[in-house]
Specification:
Layout lengths: L1 H7 L13 E6 L8 E7 L17 H11 L9 E6 L3
């Protein structure tokens, strides 16, 4: 994913396209037809080795806790943004 983002990033003066390393975390806890979607977008190339997925953390609170321990709390330049999304 990191290689694909870097290959797509236009680093020329035109800067016609910016690519981000990121993924969508999606889940359906309790099978209650309430899909949970979060876009996880990293600030730069410093990212966790493995993404946090729904099978590891089935609720947004667990996702955020795992992202803190695997990224933010390491203080190595890893930074991120999570965005809730909905699907109809």
């Amino acid at each position: 994913m990191q290689d694909a983002a870097e290959a797509a990033y236009d680093r020329t003066d035109a800067c016609a396209f910016t690519a981000f390393v990121g993924y969508e975390w999606s889940g359906n806890p309790g099978l209650n037809a309430q899909n949970l979607h979060r876009n996880v977008i990293f600030r730069n190339h410093v990212v966790p080795d493995v993404p946090v997925d729904y099978f590891q953390e089935a609720y947004p609170e667990g996702l955020w806790k795992a992202l803190h321990s695997r990224c933010l709390d390491r203080r190595n330049g890893c930074d991120l943004l999570t965005i809730p999304t909905t699907r109809t």
